[in-house]
Amino acid sequence: MKTVKKTAMLLVTLLLLAVCLTACQTTYAVTYKVTGMEDLTVKTAKGERAVAPQIATAEGVTLDGWYIDQAYTDEYDFEQAVTKDMTLYARFKSTSYAVVYDLAHETEGAQAPVQESVNYDGTFTVKDAPDRVGYEFKGWTDGEKVYLAGDTYTVTRAETVRLVATWEYRTLTAKFVSNMGEVEKEVPYGADVQPPAAEDTLHRLFCFELVGWEGGSMEKLSSDMTYTAVYDYVPTDVSYFDFALNEDGESYTLKKNVQQTLPAQVALPTAFNGKPVTKMDTGMFFYDFILNELYVPHSYEEGVYAGLAQQLKYLYVEEGVKSLPENAFKNCPELTFVELPASLEKIGPMCFYGCPKLVDIEFAQNSKLVYRDDAIYSADGTKLFWVRETLTEFVIEKEVTWINRALFASDEGFGATTFSAFKDITINADLKLLPASTFYKCYELETVTFNGVIEEIAGYGESGEVEVDPDFGATTGDMQAFHISSAVGADGKLKSLTFKSGLKRIGTGAFAMINCLQTLSLPNTVEEIAIDAFGLGYATNLVSITVTGDASTDAGVIYTDQNNFALYVRNAGLGEGNDKGDLLMYVAKGNSKVTEFTVPDGVTYIGAYSFSGSAYIESVTVPEGITILTGSAFSGMAALKKVTLPVSLKYIKAGILPDLDDNGDDYRRWGGLGTIPQVGPFANCNSLEEVNFEELVNLELIGDGAFRMSALSEIFIPASVKEIRSRAFRGVGGFFTVDENNAAYSSDENGNLYNKDKTLLINISFDGKEVIENVFAPTVDTIADCALDNSAARKYSSTIKKLVIPDNVKYIQAEAFYTNNIEYVVVGRGVEIVGAAAFYITNIDENWATIKNSLTLEFLGETAPVFYADAINPQCLIEIKTPSDSFESYYTTFVYLGLETELDDSDAKIVTYNFVNTQGENPDSVTAPAVVEMPTAVYGGSETAYFQGWFTKNGSVDGDWGERVKFPYFYHGEGSESTVYAAWGNEKYEDGTSAQLAYTVHVGVDDGDDVIGGSDFKMFNGRVYFTFTAEEYGHYELFGTNEVLFDKILKFEQYKVLEDGSLQDMGTNFVLQAGDTVICVITYSGLPEEGVMDYMFMQNTWA
User: Fold this and answer.
1) DSSP per-residue string spanning 291-321
2) Same topology for domains 6-94 and 97-169, yes or no?
3) Tens-digit pLDDT profile for residues 726-770
4) Does the domain at residues 6-94 carry the CATH identifier 2.60.40.4270?
């Protein structure tokens, strides 16, 4: 710093004068040192005082004093005398100036910054101005320059520093972005801002709540701000659900809590017990009539099932979910809006099947799937996942290479309320596969145009994505591609199909369910066709089958004849070695021009159902070389009168497979449809009169139902026949002749068919007979099942009036007399067992109406036979006669069959049965030969007690109750009145004899090796009662483990116990709600008197 001016570096005149005056005296030297100047020495007389010189200083600097040391610690006192030489040092200081901040406004409470004074040529840091609402501070000005807070200010003038604030009026924008949209607020600069009201920032979804805002402070805004709402997911309370730990032990499956009713809005929980919930039980929302909105969070990566939710309208799927499974939202008839995430990669077959109101589908931005033109595609357009089912027309464009299973499917059951409306489908795409169920039950479909090449037509159960249940079959989404018809008949409107060259494979049952089809054109590029491609032969309207293409260039296996009548498959026959011959697969059954048909030479295999149902063919000739005819090959041909079979024929079998082990005993699937067991090649050809049996010298087997219900009047059994299977000639009333050299069978002069020793009567010749009596061999002890069945042959219906079964017969097998219009039946004394439906006699008039009170049954045996289920058809009964001294035996037996009221009781003892309830009101008396059902006793006491049964004595006083009464109860004492007494006890008594004493059965678990949770109970002849109370919602079935009992069951009944204690017949509905109590009743017959034990349990088949 400049402290001394160079022009003022001399002592003042006064100082010079003092030096002159004292020059002659004794003096001391006083040296003055000033920084930046030359030293000055002045002589001062002894005893005199030194003079304090005046020095001219620079602006802003003053002389602070003279010091005797350079450290300026000891200031010199000029009032004292100089006593020695000395040096004085000048000390200078800067002038201090005030700094004043002027806010330039007088807002109440505003305080300007305070700054310490500053020296000239010094610096200070400029302070910030206090906030001023509505104004933006632009800086401080000293009149020359603007300074911002934090700037360094240098003092350049010797005066007070005054800084004046400069302001600019300003408003800011605060934007609040919530799930409901954006709200903007204009805020004065520097002011605080408040978020919008809660009602303006609610999440549009029911399961999120606002917990805050992100984006910065909302206090003293200094810039435009954007705040984003932060929401927390609020799932539905876990008490509404049950949870099952998954196999991985690290996650849960969500299940329905049957004790709870779910609310209308459900947000699925993401976690339970600290572990994620990743799956949901398929039956969660079955027939739920409350659920309206459903939110599926990210933890359910593979989606959920909410099918059959009857009121579900809105569905939201969170980001993170990758797929929606098959049938996920099947048959939700009210579903209107669906929101799907960008993460979604796959939509399973029939995901939105049966959702006719679904027209609003929204995908998140940058999603892998897109919704356009009423369909859901992959983003690149090559995959087609879903098409809205209410459309009538749709075109699959060329760029598509894959379509979902069941793309156009519909359904008329299991919750569906509407059906597919598609009429015209055009496929321009080349597809490797026309998937399963593509046209499932598209009843309105009229045309399918293939402009592209289809390489494979999917068959029944061939998707490989769904397991086919051996009992219930394939699922809806795994049916054949063309499942146009619902059942037998001509359902559907699709009449023609034409496939382009390039088709290579035709799957199982591909054409089995297009009953309406009239023309079919296939290219000869087909390399593989399933043997059951036409299923059970329901396509009876087919007029022509055409095979197109150049045989010289295409290497297919199929061909047709010149009339486009029959479809053949090369090298698929049953011949031996390299010459297997060909398979005749199917004929155009609707072609009325073909009435006679000769199967061409070279065919060694006629497929099952190939001619079945053909309405016009009257004569068929089968060529030499064929050794086997399989089940149903020619069945149901209404016009067929004559069949010429080859000498080579060995086996006429019921099984649909050529394998000799397949005897047609079991239910099988053929083309996806269930076969009817024991239907032979010519079954139900009701007009068939002529077969060249005499020429069949190599015939060994006549299988089940081979000529069932045919009109054969003469049947010759060659010597070569080794086996005639059950019901081979069921319903055939013609005259049987057996070659005398046959080792296994014989016949009699009455035309009846027997085994060789005539102990088994196989078929009764009933043509034109009015009375069948004394026509059986005396050696017969068994009448075979269906020995006399004229139920379908109307021309015999009016002839047989009386049937007498001789005393030598012991066993009458099932359906032995399945007949029409017999008025009187006599059952001989030796009959011990009557099989199921053995006397299923239905008398009918010319309009096939049942004639009531038209049949009398008379039993001659002293003891009632053992009867199996439905042994007697009660529809036409007038009465059942029995020996008078055997009434009780027959009455008890017929109670089991429900036919006790049909018995002639004119000679029976009539008794009045009184019931005394020792602890309540008495049940009404009964006047009858016997008491069938145990009366219900109602407890009237104040303490808990359990019914113990009815007894012959009143033991309430002395404890002697006599004998326990069993029902049906007959009184054998004197007089015509009997009294029995109800006993009560402290412990529950169960013996299964009534609803009150029913066995309590529990839920058991069958793991395949053992059953846990069941109980052992004694089964006995008559009605056995069980009671069960469901703890959770489900489909319950009663199971037993003793297989010996299965064919002893006459009847099964199930009743729901209502609030008033009454019983409601549940029929075949075994669905129970939690808390429901049911009574199950099994009626047995043929058990030993001591009974049989069985291990019984209930099983929830939905669990």
Assistant:
1) --EEEE-TT-TT----TT-TT--EEEE-TT-
2) yes
3) 899 998 999 999 999 999 999 999 999 999 999 999 999 988 888
4) yes
